[in-house]
Amino acid sequence: MSYGRTCFRLVAGLVAITAMMLCSHAHAAPTCTIEMVMDAGSVPRSHVPVSVEIPVGERVSEAVVSDLFADGDTTVLLKEGNATVPGQVERVFGPDATVQALRLSWIVESADPGEEKRYIARIGAENAPATSPRFHFKDTPGTYLDCFFGDRPVYRYVYEFDPDRHYDTFKPFHHVYDFDGANFITNGPGGKHDNHHRGMYIGWSEVKVGDNTYNLWAMSDKSYQQHVQFVDQESSAGPVLARRVAIIDWMNPAGEPLIRERREAVVYKQPGERHMFDMIFRLETLVGPIDMPGANLHHAGFQFRAAEEVAYHRGSTRYIIPKGSRRIDDSVDGSWCVQSPVVLERRYAIHHMDHPTNPRPTVYSTRQYGRFGAFFPTSLEPGKPLHCRYRVSVSPVKDGVGLDRGRFDVAYANYTQPPAVRVVGIEVLE
């Protein structure tokens, strides 16, 4: 081969490589660096989720957000001193489906009252190390959706609807797995003891529309709740949390929609044997004014139902309530309630927390066979959707340790008084 031809090929190769590098650089995603300070406030913090929203505008433009998420979920490097903390970023959509903000979330493993922590987050950072394990979803279309953390299933959203199997499929609900990921600690269809109560769910036994009243709790009149769709753009799964939004229509026996429910389920990374769920609901009328008084506090609201076996040894079920609250005739006038059932020979603590922004008055309903939850009478008016939110924490109890009231007081304060985060600097490198 001649010297000239060899030089020509070398030069051509260098030109091609340079072009590839320039092209790669031109399409490289930007990096957004955010500096934040977290104030723990007056509450001791332990494995508490925190988040901060960065509005889309001058400092973080729509174009930057589009580039950050061009390949789907983006990576986050979150530094606290010399430590690296898993972080997760999501897009926050407005009513018109445009991105209004970025939501950055992470878990504060520990912080003393009054302590401040400084974080630097790099969103879209190149060469970010893969964080393992992560949350992810597996859908069995038309039947159920499983949420995993690594290889371990955490919950199952059961949404099958079959009019020929009305009793078995009349209500979407969230099943909760045990910590081996082998069994559910919640109740499903079948069995003998009030099995219209299933997992984590919401409903009202009296839904009054004009002169008609429907049962959207036990569905004994052939009413039903039907999954319509997932809101995929608001789905997120990563090292910190898994978020899934479902649209559910509440139907009368004639198959006419009465209420549209938006159900948002968020589960957070926690220590090995703890699940933490935020359940967020929006209910809006589709047929004009609706009254939902509930027949009584045991047949309405957001509920948790433990596995049916609890009904066979109901004497072992314990309840812990806030100091100063009373449990009278299976009702509790408190802001939270803990059910401690035994499932498959293992005792659990199910901490159900009512957010202070929820409608009032709220009363907790409790039953020894494993159903408990927050009830309130309400009504719906056109253009005025009902919003309510709850946190449910599930953990095992060993030898009775872990049922002290003080622990649950602190957990409730962590929910209702989250750490304050302020953004002190934003830099975008494009």
Provide the CATH architecture of the largest domain. Answer: Distorted Sandwich
Could you tell me the mean pLDDT?
90
- Shape label: globular
In the CATH hierarchy, the third-tier topology of the largest domain is known as Beta-galactosidase, Chain A, domain 5
Low-confidence stretches: 1-27
What's the number of extended β-strand segments?
30
Tally of domains: 2
The profile of the biggest β sheet is: 10 strands, antiparallel
Helix/strand/pairing category: mainly beta
CATH class of the largest domain: Mainly Beta
- Fraction in helix: 10-25%
Roughly how many Å apart are the termini?
A: 44 Å
Provide the gyration radius in Å: 25 Å
How many helices? The count is 4
% residues in beta strands: over 45%
Structure in words:
- Strands 13, 14, 15, 16, 17, 20, 23, 24, 25 and 29 form a ten-stranded antiparallel beta sheet that branches.
- This protein folds into two domains: 97 residues, Sandwich (Immunoglobulin-like); 263 residues, Beta-galactosidase, Chain A, domain 5, CATH 2.70.98.
- The N terminus is likely disordered.
- The radius of gyration is 25 Å and the shape is globular.
- It has 430 residues and is mainly β.
- Strand 15 and strand 16 form a beta hairpin.
- The protein has four helices and 30 strands.
- The relative contact order is 0.14.
Summarize the structure.
This protein has helices spanning 3-26, 62-68, 166-169, 405-416, and strands at 31-39, 45-55, 76-80, 83-93, 99-111, 116-123, 135-140, 144-149, 152-158, 173-176, 200-209, 212-216, 224-230, 236-237, 241-251, 257-268, 275-285, 290-292, 300-305, 318-320, 327-328, 331-332, 336-340, 342-343, 346-354, 363-366, 371-375, 378-380, 386-397, 420-429. The protein is mainly beta and 430 residues long.
